[in-house]
Amino acid sequence: MNPRPDMIEFQDVHKYYGDYHALRGITATIKAGEFFSLLGPSGCGKTTLLRTIAGFEGISSGAVMIDGKNMAGVPANVRPTNMVFQSYAIFPHLTVEQNVGFGLRKDPMSKDQKARAVAEALEMVGLKGYGARAAHALSGGQRQRVALARALILKPKVLLLDEPLSALDKKMREQMQVELIRLQRQVGITFILVTHDQEEALVMSDRIAVMFEGEIAQLADPETLYRRPNSKKVADFIGTMNFLPARIVSEAGGMVEVEAQGFGAMTLTTEQCAAAGADKAGAMVGFRPETLTILFDGQTATDRETMGTVAEVVYYGDMTYYDVKLDGTEVPMRLSMRNVFGRPVLDLGTRTRIAWSPGALVLFR
Amino acid sequence: MNKGSGLRVYAIVYLVFLYAPIILLPLFAFNDSRVIAFPLTGFTTGWFAAMWEDEQLFRALRNSLIISGSTAIFATTLGIFAARASTRYSFPGKSGLLGLIMLPLVLPEMIMAMSLLVVLLWIGIPLSIWTIILGHILICTPFAVAILSSAFQSLDKSLEEAAYDLGENAVSTFRLIILPLVMPGIVSSLLICFTISLDEFIIAYFLGGSDTPLSAYIYGQFRFPARVPAMLALGTILVGVSILLLSIAEYFRRRGLARTGAKDTGGFL
Ligand SMILES: Nc1ncnc2c1ncn2[C@@H]1O[C@H](COP(=O)(O)OP(=O)(O)O)[C@@H](O)[C@H]1O
Ligand SMILES: [Mg+2]
């Protein structure tokens, strides 16, 4: 990827609601043309941060820059951003057409040109021919598309989306995820998405900022976030991660000697270490469910091997989740196995061999 | 007798007490007798004709229309400001201020009328239809605020933000988005204020000068037994008009809810 210019820059942004410290020193940059997500639990300040970009929320200190310009004192109606609201905010007394063309009201282009622009925008979001419909009679998914068309028709530099998919059912949500990605590639506009759904963020984003309590805990691309979370909190929030107590034996030259329950002695690189600087007694190794593999008859481990007992089986059709108690540990670990035709699902209590590799572990300390 | 039918009997008795007198109004308005008593003696439209020839009555009607029309417009305008302020902004003393605006709703009208009269006489403002309008604005504004608050409340705040986000300013957002969406509430408030003012008597009687509105005129006419049937005819028309206006008001209130997709939390009617 060639280097892109910065589109949004947060410089130590703080926001207070009275005494409540909603944003606690946000510093980050979002690149032009990027699909960027703000991910975090409800109440962590995602919407507040998004609204500081739109100009609906003033900031207490720091600076928000859009395309190199400081936005202090610039009101929302002249900022080069448009927003898709969580409630979609479709004007209920107007038609679909009038909604989509609303932002063009003061545009000097001719009536014909406007009508064409509206038709194009509607076609882009898959609502061709819906122009004359009354807005209040639309379904949730259609409202969402109208909101998208209404924002994109103005060709903003940045499109802000506040939990746009949270009101849709699962199937519709997955379909819209794919469409949003397609749309973003097509128009090339910077998209900033607010979501509390980690899967949605992983699926859609180029980069994700994980937020907790008004702070960005980690900002990285989806793969890094998943494979190398920088804290236990991030690891817990994104996907499933198993933890086992560990002890750091020694550390030298970028290598860490670790003694972990159930796994025994191993050597990890410092890249595998999250959040350095804590006390050694509370260290833990973490691993994702799919990084450990149950070995069936005749299979051999490519790296290391241990034994465990199946304590729980959850069958999902394409996948089976096993809770396995590794020998020498107290708490069952969650493992996921893709189901293969002709291979049985293991019964409760089965003793089984398990393959693992130190390279897939993350050390939290 | 089970519990349900007991309640039903209660409801029927209640409704009879509430509405029987109103049904008597047209009954005697069409009765061919000066005496208001059963049995009915015959059918006539003569009382309506007598009413029609009454010049004083038309003057009273004109006064009433001016009073009720002005009251409806002023009270609704004040209501828009108050409802907007109460649903969007917070400022110190807000609930106290709103309480003061709503106070005439529970204050005896008698007290209002007397205290206003004292103040007006003390300042030296002569009594006229304008002093009645002043009094009516005071008693109608709480209704306007209540109706309009619910209209403004059901307005999603993000609609305003969306208009702003799409390049409009505060004034054009109000004109293009807020006003059309609360318009049913405004119409409903106008009609209800008009109806309340039209039917109001105590303030109209206390604060009126030589120009009496309908309510005070009707009261005056009751001193002459011969005039009573004609007044019942007039009353019949007023009941009809009131029911019509309130129905239209309710229609607009419901249409407003349907348009914004809000849930009906019950209105005045
Ligand atoms: N206008 C406001 N006044 C006071 N507190 C607010 C306001 N808006 C948001 N907050 C508080 O700020 C915190 C962050 O809110 P928000 O940004 O909406 O969270 P998120 O979108 O991540 O769920 C919440 O605790 C919320 O209660
Ligand atoms: Mg939010």
Textual characterization of the structure:
The complex is a heterodimer of chains A (365) and B (269). Chain A has helices at residues 46-54, 96-100, 111-124, 140-152, 170-187, 198-204, 222-227, 232-237, and strands at 6-17, 20-31, 35-39, 61-66, 69-70, 81-84, 158-162, 190-195, 207-212, 215-220, 242-252, 255-260, 264-269, 273-274, 284-287, 293-295, 304-315, 319-326, 333-338, 351-356, 362-364. With 365 residues, chain A is α+β, with helices and mostly antiparallel strands. Chain A folds into 2 domains: 6-227, Rossmann fold (3-Layer(aba) Sandwich), CATH 3.40.50; 240-365, OB fold (Dihydrolipoamide Acetyltransferase, E2P). A 6-stranded mixed beta sheet of chain A has the order 6-7-8-3-9-10, sandwiched between helices. In chain A, strands 13-12-11-15-21-14 form a 6-stranded mixed beta sheet, with no helix packed on it. In chain A, a hairpin with a 3-residue loop joins strand 12 (255-260) and strand 13. In chain A, helix 3 crosses helix 4 (140-152). The longest helix of chain A has 18 residues, at 170-187. The mean pLDDT of chain A is 92. Chain B is mainly alpha-helical and 269 residues long. Chain B has a single domain (66-260), classed as MetI-like fold (Orthogonal Bundle), CATH 1.10.3720. Helix content of chain B is 75%, strand content 0%. Chain B starts with a helix and ends in a 9-residue tail after the last helix. Mean pLDDT of chain B is 84; it is low at 265-269. Classes of the chains: A alpha+beta (365), B mainly alpha (269). The interface between A and B is medium-sized, with 23 and 18 residues. Adenosine-5'-diphosphate (ADP) is lined by residues 17, 20, 22, 40, 42-48 of chain A.
In short:
With 365 residues, chain A is an alpha+beta fold. Helices cover 21% and strands 36% of the residues of chain A. Chain B contains eleven helices and no strands.
